[in-house]
Amino acid sequence: EICCGPGLYTSRLARLGHVCVGVDFGPASVAYAQDAARKEGLACTYVREDVREATFGDGFDLTMMISGQFNVFTREDARSILAKALRSLSGGGLLLLEPQRFRTVKGDGAAKTSWWSVPSGLDVFSAEPHLCLMERFWDEKARASTERYFVIDAATAEVTRHALSNEAYTDEEFRTVLTDVGFEDVTFFPSLVGVEDESQAMNLAITARKPRA
């Protein structure tokens, strides 16, 4: 699994008897996944590495990248990741993508500025009490959204800044980039469960196969 996070899906697959490998850059996520696999005795290996630079190995029956992570990368990096995903598969192997829909990315970029406070407990940005201000932008020419976060520490008033961008793709653009890198049988589904599901409306699911030799 590319961008496996805490291994929620690889753990489920391993419980069904599959042997899994996950790659992610987040130290906390990888540590959690490794600890969970060790406690349950699951056949999962987790690697902390930047997926843009990691080698994915080969011989897999399934390679997946879900939870909208595909859109986080630049178009150039996303294409490179797909090419490595193709090489990681055996002939006839399946790629599973769950990218964000075009309307999801555009809607996020067009949303209003917002803020929230965190009095205590672990948050995305800090475990200390803080105030977070967020502003959003949509770039029509680049077809990309950007979220900028200003995190103000409640005790020191120190400000840290973070930003997140997402690239928006039409269905045809998804099909084109997949076929361009060598996949075939590109198929679209309204969600990971295969049917319209309001709880998963932000993303769609795509499968594609590596040609058999």
Which key features would you list for this structure?
4-stranded antiparallel sheet, 5 helices, globular, 213 residues, 4-stranded mixed sheet, 33% strand, alpha+beta
Describe the structure.
With 213 residues, this protein is of the alpha+beta class. It is built from 5 helices and 10 strands. The strands form 3 sheets. It has a 4-stranded mixed β-sheet with strand order 3-4-10-9.
Counting helices, strands and paired strands, the structural category is alpha+beta
The amount of helix comes to 25-40%
Order of helices and strands: HEHEEHEHEEEEHEE
Task: Provide the spatial order of strands within the biggest beta sheet.
Answer: 3-4-10-9
Tell me the total number of β-strands.
10
Q: Report the principal-axis shape.
A: globular
Oligomer: single chain
Strand content: 25-35%
Q: Give the low-confidence spans.
A: none
Summed up, the helix count is 5
Largest sheet entry = 4 strands, mixed
Q: Using only CA atoms, what is the Rg? A: 19 Å
Average pLDDT reading:
95
How do the strands and helices of this protein lay out in sequence?
Layout: H1 8-15, E1 20-24, H2 27-40, E2 44-48, E3 60-65, H3 75-88, E4 89-97, H4 102-110, E5 114-118, E6 130-139, E7 144-153, E8 159-167, H5 171-181, E9 184-189, E10 205-209
Parallel strand pairs: 1-2, 3-4
Antiparallel strand pairs: 4-10, 5-6, 6-7, 7-8, 9-10
